[in-house]
Amino acid sequence: MALDSAKKQEIVTKFGRSGTDTGSSEVQIALLTTRISELTEHLKQFKKDHASRLGLLKLVGQRRRLMKYFKKKNKDAYMKLVSDLGIRDNI
After folding, report:
1. 7-to-35, 64, 87 alpha-carbon distances in Å
2. What is the CATH number of domain 22-83?
């Protein structure tokens, strides 16, 4: 369940430092958050899809590690990103 290119480009332009910035922590966290929310909606409908559930847990762990790194590097930008994405600051 990958993101389509139009939605991915929209996220990159919104959270990236430039139009082609796909590697910064902000963009990676935003992309992971979008994928997590889509997988969560999928799993609400298909409760027995355990393979997707495992993938979701891996994505959540990856996002958590990125958020921990980003919070350590730039706390102000981290707090802004968390508020923009509407996710909890539990790190």
Report:
1. 11, 22, 19
2. 1.10.287.10
How far apart CA 59 and CA 46 sit, in angstroms, is 18
Domain ranges of the chain: 22-83
Report how far residue 67's alpha carbon sits from residue 10's, in angstroms, rounded to the nearest whole number. 21
The model's pTM is 0.93
Judge whether 19 and 30 are in contact, CB under 8 Å: no
Q: pLDDT digits over 26-83, tens only?
A: 999 999 999 999 999 999 999 999 999 999 999 999 999 999 999 999 999 999 999 9
Q: Which two tokens stand for residue 85?
A: 């994405």
Closest CA to 77 of 7, 20, 24: 24
